[in-house]
Amino acid sequence: xxxxxxxxxxxxTLKTFDPLTPDGxxxxxxxxxxxxxxxxTTEFAERARLLRRAADLLEQDEQDIARTMTTEMGKxxxxxxxxxxxxxxxxxxxxxxxxxxxxxEHPADTDVKDSGADRALVRxxxxxxxxxxxxxxxxxxxxxxxxxxxxxxGNVGLLKHASNVPQTALYLEDxxxxxxxxxxxxxxxxxGSDAIEGILRDPRVAAATLTGSEPAGRSVxxxxxxxxxxxxxxxxxxxxxxxxxxxxVERAAATAVTARTQNNGQSCIAAKxxxxxxxxxxxxxxxxxxxxxxxxxxxxxxxxxxVGPLAxxxxxxxxxxxxxxAVGAGATARxxxxxxxxxxxxxxxxxxxxxxxxxxxxxxxEEAFGPVATLYxxxxxxxxxxxxxxxxxxxSSNVWTRDEEDVAGFVRDLEAGGVFVNGMTASHPALPFxxxxxxxxxxxxxxxxIKEFCNATTVWRTGI
Length: 464
Hints:
It is built from 16 helices and 19 strands. By secondary structure, the chain is α/β, with parallel strands linked by helices. α2 runs antiparallel to α4 (77-101), α2 runs antiparallel to α6 and α4 (77-101) runs parallel beside α6 (141-153).
């Protein structure tokens, strides 16, 4: 795939970039290794000062970087601004909290006395240069939620971003440079996917984090495993959105629209499978379908647009294949189901709700990465749990109920990295984020995330 900015609203190639040469990659790896030797010794106060400065600069740049993201991958401009603002919030949160999150842990003397130690503690030390292989769908946020904790922990970052968001990738390197970070603390590697293996196998690279597709995750995990290097993977999702009889159906249906179509439906944690108890199925379906059909599809630079184009022509074709397979096997398109009229130049697809889904349809097992929802009717809580878990993915989940016994049952039994009750799945710097099953492993954000790329070092002392 060429490294290029291609506007998904009209298919126009705006700018192309040459990938780094082998010598260029070597230079950047050497610079990262040198930067780590210094950055790892800096005090938390200095790291926080730099990160706060980066946050201030990003806040000033919000309008410009939002337009860049919208141009490169098609999200509505308002959503792009919100993404930039979220990154600012996360940077400041880690600047304020990293020292506390990574403070030495002191076991009670009674717990370690049998070891012969006078004192013992656990200290979190950085690992080194971390390779981040990042996706295009949240081109700023996905990177910042790795970079902020990694830099605060004393690591340095090497970004291999998706090839269709090169200007956003270069902006991120420039942002940290302008904030005053020493050379090599955060670098963008404009390379194709064929260069990842060599970079990851380099002994100067300590670990890797990847957000992306399952095939990409498998590849990076296999290479890192062969090198015995730590990885964190956040892969696909097909999150269930369960609505039970006691739910506020009006609010659930309104939230369901946003949960499915945020970022033009191209979000791993978007609700994709809507599992509704028969007692409220008809009311929910009527409200949900009407609201999905009423969304405005169009130019993402237009402030009135709700849903912009998909990020690539291939992505739209993949979505069309899933919908056509389902409809051909008997599913009903309650709304949408095709391309909008009058938007022939871009990669647009109508918000769509499918009912009558059966297990033999591809969309029942595969992730639909676009504004397409599947609607299911169930008779009981247990049937809802079984259907929600009937997926190779386990990223997050949504549950709508006002019954505490329902909540307890779903929290106990849903196979997912998160259970959001009466609200939409979202990531927040104070809460761990990640999945189970084929949605990946490890956690980002919170104290759990910052410790993923640290060496939890036992310090045992006696005789001093």
